[in-house]
Amino acid sequence: MTSALIVIDLQNDFCPGGALAVPEGDRIVPGINALMAEFPSVILTQDWHPSGHSSFASSHPGTSAYEMTQMPYGPQVLWPDHCVQGSHGAEFHDALNTARADLILRKGFNPAIDSYSAFFENDRTTPTGLHGYLQTRGITELTMVGLATDFCVNYSALDAAHLGYRVTVRRDLARGIDLDGSLAAAEAGMAAAGVILA
């Protein structure tokens, strides 16, 4: 019982047709459902923003989606409105086997701070509670899949590695946005941190 599968943000808004669609984001769902059978613990993360979230370009007049801005906690990509609490876009993809989850962790609900990582908000200090949950259960090995490889999967994997977990990212069951080379940079950074890219 020391390993867990972490399925990151497999939500409608990140799949084709969604507000912040990752190319082929829906194609990984069957493989992820099948992989769940190999793990004693399955955890789902869910982006869960209030309307008017500070990471939305619409909250910053005169800006466009995908521009960079400075927040009190550092640089931040401004995103299209996505995964708004209670919306269809925030729901998990219909085909995802959510019944298999031991825990659904919602992140990004603080209106002032975005949260890419499953472990910390983007100020890099405010915990989500996932680390404590995993410690309590004695889980030391994590396999990560989902969306998007270069943002939420990447940040989650790096934080997990820094916290001492043995981390594997299944590249075949993750998809990236790839903003200006962000996918290659993320994969290089994960490898340098000791994350296994399988």
UniProtKB/TrEMBL annotation:
Keyword terms? Hydrolase, Metal-binding, Pyridine nucleotide biosynthesis
Q: Please name the top-level EC class of this enzyme.
A: hydrolase
Q: In which pathway does it act?
A: Cofactor biosynthesis; nicotinate biosynthesis; nicotinate from nicotinamide: step 1/1
Q: Name one GO molecular function term.
A: metal ion binding
Identify the InterPro entries for this entry: Isochorismatase-like_dom (IPR000868), Isochorismatase-like_sf (IPR036380), Isochorismatase_Nicotinamidase (IPR052347)
Q: Its Gene Ontology biological processes?
A: pyridine nucleotide biosynthetic process
Q: What is its EC number?
A: 3.5.1.19
**What residue stretches are annotated with the Isochorismatase-like domain?**
3-188
- Pfam families found in the cross-reference section: Isochorismatase
Family note: Belongs to the isochorismatase family.
Please report the name of this protein according to its UniProt entry: Nicotinamidase
Q: Which organism is it from?
A: Roseovarius mucosus DSM 17069
